[in-house]
Amino acid sequence: MLNAIHMTLMVGPAVPIPVSRDVLDALTGVQVTTTTEGPSAFQLQFALNNRSPLHSIFLLSAGLPIPLVRVVIVVTVQGTSQVLIDGVMTNHQVSPSSAGHSTLTVTGEDLSRVMDYIDFSGIPYPAMPREARVALIVAKYAMFGIIPVVIPSVVVDVPLPISKIPGQRGKDLAYVKILAEEVGYDFYFEPGPTPGTSFAYWGPQIRVGVAQKALNFDMDAHTNVESLSFSYNAERKTLPILVIFNEQTHVPIPIPLPSFNPLSPPLGLVEPFPKNVQLMIGTAKASVPQAIAIGLAKAAKTADVVEGTGTLDVLRYGRILQARRLVGVRGVGPAFDGLYYVKSVTHDLKRGEYKQSFKLARNGLLSTLPSVNA
Length: 374
Fold this sequence. Notes:
The protein has 374 residues and is mainly β. It is 13% helix and 42% strand. It contains 6 helices and 23 strands. A hairpin with a 7-residue loop joins strand 20 and strand 21 (338-350).
């Protein structure tokens, strides 16, 4: 890597340690993808001699299969370190060639994968709200350096043990995601800030905070992206309709739910009128606050009618662009300039090169701010 970029690769059965120089010399490419629509994933590529013992170093120890191989990737850019991913290997593929060399490709996912191995169906949680259940489930994985960050929901639902005792359904990961969907929350893992630790976040999607360094396009010497394009799809926006049944009058009351959320304020000034209406089904047994929380989350997911994609060179940009954060855009034009939410980032590292491809989103055209910080 260039002097301004340094990568550290750590591998181990449970506690990862820095790999040897031989492993780093064989490494030809690293790709890490962080997205709001699923778990983070990584891919490592090695160029090896067909008889190299590195073919099995990630899978074997003393001749016995290792049930879990952990991988941590840390990148330091201009003195600032960031953990790109803390995960486990899930698959490997060897592509031999007639020249006596082969390519070993190792893929994996973040530590949410370890919550998807064992089925704990039937475990009771008497008199425990959803957030307490989530905290207790995530606490089982403290050995992996996982720290739960659980935000209490506005939906207070603590069933009395004499009437109902909630029981777990399925594996930990699936059950925690179900609990999140019941209150309109997200659940994901964020690695760092130090190698070997990760935050397991269970809470609302947050689109506020300090924006990252602006992405500059067509601004001569200030340009710091290689490509940037935007699309506008007004047909995507959907208006959820919540129906509440009045027990006194026996009349259903429809309530349209806007996409506005205090934790996710609009970033675009001009929003399209929703052409699609979705009647919320399956919330008849839910309380009114719970149904509203679910509806607001559904409205927010369809509100991103403006999407942007692009690529950048990290050295020219000066830092690492992070997903699930805000970022400013300048130089595209008044319709698309302004703040955006970073929905996904893919890191591509090779020797002497570090590039990122990204996907941005917001709710409408024209910025709600007169300008964004450089």
